[in-house]
Design brief:
Helix 12 runs antiparallel to helix 13 and helix 13 runs antiparallel to helix 15. Strands 3-2-4-1-5 form a five-stranded antiparallel beta sheet. A four-stranded antiparallel beta sheet has the order 7-8-6-9, with helices on both faces. The chain is elongated, with a radius of gyration of 30 Å. The chain is α+β, with helices and mostly antiparallel strands and 412 residues long. A hairpin with a 2-residue loop joins strand 2 and strand 3. It contains 15 helices and nine strands.
Amino acid sequence: MGLALGAVGGVALAVLGPWLLPDRRARNDAGANETTFLTEIRLLEGHPGLGKPLAEVADLSRPGIRITARREGARLRRSNLDEHVVSVGDVFVAMATTSEILTLRDIAGLGVGLRRGTGGRASEEDLVVAEAMVTPTHGSPRDTVSQLSVGYRYGLRVLGAHRQGHVPGADLGSARLRPADKLLLEGTTEGFDRLAQGGELVSVTRPSGRAYRRRRAPLALLALFAVVGLAAFDVAPISLLALGAVAAILLCRCIDNDEAWGSVDAGILVLILSMLIVGVGLEETGTVALIVDTLAPWLEGLPPIALLAALYALTSILTETVTNNAVAVVVAPIAVALGQETGVDPRALVVAVMMGASASFATPVGYQTNTLVYGAGEYRFSDFLKIGLPMNLIVGLAAVLVIPLVFPLTPG
């Protein structure tokens, strides 16, 4: 029955999801809320993309990277970029998000930004990245990024330049600075301290974006599948398994502490806790039991298939506000009693209660997995209603049709 209902629900979600759910990929896409910088990317020895057309180089074909030109001596070529076969020494002009620039910076065989100035090169462990803003007294149409003195004076290297609403220049080196332009810089902590004291650039802050850890993505997926699999086999409660998975991906450096805390949405927590409080109140005050006891006499006279459907619907509706376990504990004994009084196999009715308590999709607290995807999918409460109510009806109808095939409603 679980396989049958899973297949029906999966098909229904695949068909209805694109139609009923809004397309929020713009918010979820890499770097949608990040600053985009003009930068340059150099191909060095050892990069796996050498000898391939640019369009087939995975590191340069990410959603947050847009190649705009290729340098040929002093000229910039902007046509037929995808067909160009990449070779050592190629320099590409690109618009890229902060996270993608930081990711490219850590890839062997790639150089990002302007070449390092005369300030020397510190060890990779000592280098940090920060954003700085051009001051009104410094930025002028005559100044370009390549003319900045941050290299030999502070040992810093320019990774990218940003201008709100505009592309700052044809390439990074020739981009002319204006007040309020933002620069992405790499250097030592001491170099940034001297820069802040010098007053040429201000508002030196850590960038909001972080480098992607794409090589650790399989570990995060493994943690997700482990949580679902172990919970399915009742090895431990899903809440404890989820906490263990979070600890594992933190220890494996799939994300860091700041990213973990930054992903917590206070509004979602308030909504979920508020609904859980309402659910506990309904349970502790006996409201759920009162509703079930009131409806039970009306269910006795129904035909067997209608009784099965009514119990499933009642359980599903109550589960949307009260925890599924609490609803099952209250409704299951009523289902057994109704089965004994009406001559319907109680097993079929109890299975309907079990399925109805587990297959509830119309609220983010209807089931634990609903809560898990609420924040990660950028969903809203109304999204669950739009897709959840049709899903409840479709899966419920499938359950009412499938359960009698496994557990006949009447003996013989």
